[in-house]
Amino acid sequence: MKILRSFILLITLLFSANTITYATSNAYNLKNNNISKKLNFELINMTDNDVVEVFNHNDNLIYLTEEDVNLMAKIVYAESKGEPYEGKIAVASVILNRVLSPGFPNTINEVILQPNAFSCVINGEINVTPTEECYNAVYDAIKGNDPTNEALFFYNPSIATCSWMQDVQKTNSKAIGQHLFFNTY
């Protein structure tokens, strides 16, 4: 019986060592061959506890922290209160689209705090407590639901005070609730 237990222990240790070697080897190969940035991140950077969500669009990855999600939910609340749920998702999508666009900063925080980017930041209305619906809209946008056709801009034409928004040439415009979502030429 003692020999059988020793044999099982030996086999278990050998199997564990092979599994660890295989996992380490695969992580090394992924890193060096750049096969998959997402898998590489998951295998190599598993200790990065700050990342709570990953937005993946056309092989572009945005690693989102809890602070990013909270900040996005605040913008969604402040910019789209009274709008339909689809409009809330659309506001969150614009933020993600800007992070992916070379014409904007490459982090959620920098996009949101970019000068004159969001009226609620300018007038202080960002200091709100988002609703669960706002968080759900952010998570739906992170999952890839983008009702805006990859818009980078939005405004409410009936109350906008920015002449740039009204006068600029728009492409792929789409009305959702009271907002118009669009790109520029």
Automatic annotation (TrEMBL):
It holds the Pfam family Hydrolase_2. Residues 1-23 form the signal peptide. It comes from Clostridium sartagoforme. The keyword Nucleus does not apply. Gene3D superfamilies: 6.20.240.60, Cell wall hydrolase SleB, domain 1 (1.10.10.2520). This is Cell wall hydrolase. Residues 82-182 form the Cell wall hydrolase SleB domain. GO terms for molecular function: hydrolase activity. It comes from the Bacteria. Keywords: Hydrolase, Signal.
